[in-house]
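Example 3.2
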Amino acid sequence: MILQRLSVHDFACLGDAEFEFGSGLNIIRGPNEAGKSTLQTAFLTLFFVKANTTSRDWHRFQSWSARQMYSLSADFAATGRQWRLTKDFAAKKASLADLTSGEEWTDHDQVQEKLDELLGTGSRDVYESTAAVRQQQVAMLGAKDEIGQMLQQAISGTPAGVSVPDILNKLDKALSDLQRGLPPHHAPKNPGPLVIVRDQITTLEGRLNDLAQDRDKVTDARRRLREAEEELEELQPRVEQTDDLLQRGERRRKLEEQLKDIESAWTSLHERVDKAEGLAGKIDEIIGTEVGEKTGEESAREVAEKAAKLQDEERQTAGKIADIDQRLRQTDEAMAAAKVRGWVRPAVIAGAVSIVAGLAGALFWSPWCLLLTVGGAVVAVVGLVRRAPRGYTALLEERGHLERDLAAERGKLPRLREQLADLLKTTGVESIGELRSLADVESELRGTLGSDALEELKQELAQSAMERATIQEQLKSPNLAHLELDPLKIEGLRRQLVRDQERHKSLQGDQIRTSTILSTSEYDAEEQLRTQEQLEAAQERQARLHEKETVYQLTQEVLAEAYQQTLAHTTQAIEPRVAELLKAITQGRYERVGVAEDSFEPVVFSPEKNGEAEPGDLSCATREQLYLAARLALTEVLWPDESPPLLLDDPLVNFDPQRAAATLELLAGFAQSRQILYFTCSSRFDEYAAHIIELPTPESGA
């Protein structure tokens, strides 16, 4: 590309101006603040910034005296054709015209896309890191990734617009998008296809498992229902048969118990009747008739009780008579004793005298005198204890009362004996013993008969015999006659019946439960088939995604390795040219240069160090010379056929005269195939210039 004309309107300090350029080395010279840097910015803005930008950063280049944004235009030659580029930032319009063919583009994106193609890059960073060298920014390289992409395209012959790093980034993004949410990463809100299909498979497997369980439940329920129905069909007759057998056995047992009770009652009644008849006959033998007929409704027992009472009164009266006789004898003895004088007081006195005499004798004569004391004490005690008899007159009066009581009691005896004789006479017996025997027989008869008469008892006996005959006939019936069940067998049948009934109830419960399961089950065979098909489809999709993942990974690995190998070849291709250029600039001092594959940072072999020296180890000027050589070499590699103009903002300011002259010679050679716009304040480079553009001196303040 050869820039021929650049026009600016209301752009910063340049205002309205137009500049003409030629091929080769163009020296743009002017003093400070003449607009050299502004002219570089105008070029970069025109070629790399869209006219419809909304960024406020570009407003700062508006002229202070202008009321609206600026406009820029340029004429240039490229690809063998003439072009005109116009960008009006005030009207936000752009146009790129192919003056040779007459074709024109006005869409901002299309204009910029076509410019990128003509410039050989769409990256301002790449351009400023290689072909545009600003003052004090020589010793640095930017946009290394983009430079690497362009180098890879230039060396490997990859078509323009095809970027291996972009492809690797796209592969990495595609792989990341595919694997988004897989461990060890946290599950995002928007998981990738692998996570989605994995979760879908998990869901489908869970649903299929649920359906399989439902199917198994339904199958099991149907099997259990069928088995329950079959077992119930077999069990029902057995339960009915066992129950009927037990009922008949229970009926026979109850009838036998009733028969046993009736026979026992019949036997008892028969014995009572026989006994009653015997007792009645015995009574007839004793008195010839019933006692009540002779005593006026009184039974022999009642008469015997009266006779016993009279006999008791007779015995009590005899006892009283004997008691009174005893008391009379005691009274007579007391009366005889009362005639004798009382001797109580003399005994006490005599005892006291003996006690005193005994004590005195023991004290003055002999201890044996104490025996007299003991004897006196005994006499005194007897005299004190013994009661003196009552008076004789009182005893005589008491004796009179006793004699009267005795006469009264003796008068009762004949009367009681007469009453007892009359009572025995009324019963027809001769003694109390016979009367008691008669009472016992009659009492036994009444106990035998109870409240019933003998005839009623005989009727009850006949009724019991009829009931016995009825039960015996029932036991002889066909249902009960040959039924022989002992207690053990009955108990065994009863336990069997209970077990069968419980089993019958359990089976009915199983019927209800299984019927409920079958009626409420949501199992759908078609849904299971659909779910199985969906699962197989999801598994197939997962397999395809894993295949794609594998392809991505393999492609990424192969392409990355190939890219690294390409970069290695690229740096190997650059290193000789950088060394050649640096040797020319440094006049042979530095001949060996290495370039890092990843950062493109240059290193030199230092004779003093006898080894590699990092750029930081070099002097400021040498470091700038090293980077200038690297930039020029990169420019040759990146744009081997047609390059954009090289913008050099006086990069030789720190060079000594010898190296500056050598570098200018080198640049003059470069200018044979590339347009160079060299911005400087000095006129010392004029002799090397093909064209000189002198900027006016800025006006001084008033």
